Amino acid sequence: MKVNKIINIAELFCGAGGFAQGSKEAGFNHLWGLDNHEDSCKSFEKNQKCKSYCEDIREFTKPSYLKQIKKTHGNINGLLFGFPCNDFSLVGKNKKMEGKFGGLYKYACKVLDYFEPEFFVAENVTSLGKKLKHNSSVRKKVKDIFNNEKLQNQNYQNFKKIMGDLASCSKSGYRIYADNYKFEEYGVPQTRHRIILVGFREDFFKENKINFEKPKKIEGPFVTCKQAIDKIPEWASHQELTKHDDKVIRRLKKTAEGKNVWDLDNDEDGLPGVKKARMSHIYKRLDSSKPSYTVTGSGGGGTHVYHYKENRALTNRERARLQTFPDTYNFIGGKESIRRQIGMAVPVLGAKKIMNAVKKALKKNKQYKSYHHDWMIKGKTRDLYFTGKEYVGYQMKFDFDD
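RESULT FIELD:
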């Protein structure tokens, strides 16, 4: 593939278009996107200037529907899909493959089988698959939680199955590289940790001797949340303030920068009656000297991300800044719907850097070069490699840091 040609891509679970915006800034051309959230579809179409289908993935991936999509838009060179993380995230109920959303990646397989694009890029949370750090404290923490081998390896086996299933898509299969990303290490002003899968169709990979290298991490200090949300122009949309009751305002006044409600202990304006499920981000102020903690798309009181200085939750435009959306990006829907769209997006800058690396890899090479990746699987195989051959010991752990 000549890298200066138009590279047409499409997207499943496209949301409001964070992945798409980053791809566009990297020079890719979106033909269509799919999501089942009506406001997200409207936001995607308004900003990406391409067709969005607001459909159930189960209906969309029927052969008759895909045939019509191909007839309308033509073929695609690449497919993006950030399959929903609800059942894999530690913040959720952690139902994994048995949950409502756990198996939705299989519908991406149907699209890959039908269109057989040269590449795909997929995103999900890091608790889906992660190598265990080799130190005694982490091993002890894992041992305390997983008191039998079945539970210890469940998360790894789910990850291995997903990788194997995706590697088997299309006639040739896909060679897949999977890596954990800490987006703050790539210039995003937010500690957002995700796993990114990049797959190349095996025949395309071999014919072009594809060399895929992860994007470079930034040099120097991280971008802080203060830098990110500073100097928002008055003309930018979505700057409505959240109305807080008096107790929340008193609580925030008593909460120091970088601290949360649990630091108030038994103060009457804290949450003294809550002894369990003490999530670290509840009514937590940002630390102006650091990137933001993870911006989420849902949750009740205390989960809206709170200003490092002012006694309030962030506006949606400030959240969008933390997700590196441009100020010209306008979302459709009510305040909570827009919060959802922003929180569920892939950070635009992170997506741009990943897609630039993919674009660079698509050119034909004379020889292979070896680059480090956390995991790799060859097309039409089930053997999963990570810095060496598969080892089914302490190879996975939940993401305790997120």
